[in-house]
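Quick start: what a row looks like.
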Amino acid sequence: MDLDNLTYDIPLRDVRKLITKRMEELGWNLEELERLINCYEAVLPLTPEQKQVLYIDLLFPYKYYGYAKNPFKKGEPGEVKKLLKGYQFDLEACLFYKRYCN
């Protein structure tokens, strides 16, 4: 059994990862975002507090952080193109989610 990538986290992490992946694949599609959330809530409705936590989690710049941490954590030189790509992706995500949630 390989436990290197085992993560103990809130269940909303899975929802955030699913949403982020689909938005990356399909572009920033409001209908798809609503469909994903509605499908999840058909099984397990979200409280207002959980929706707020999901929104906050969606706003965190995970892609940029993933690229930015490598030079420090793994001793690898940072690649400017990857950092810019991560920044652009997370900026688009932030603007999209702010439009959806406001």
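That is the whole record. The chain has one domain: 12-101. The first helix runs from residue 12 to 26.
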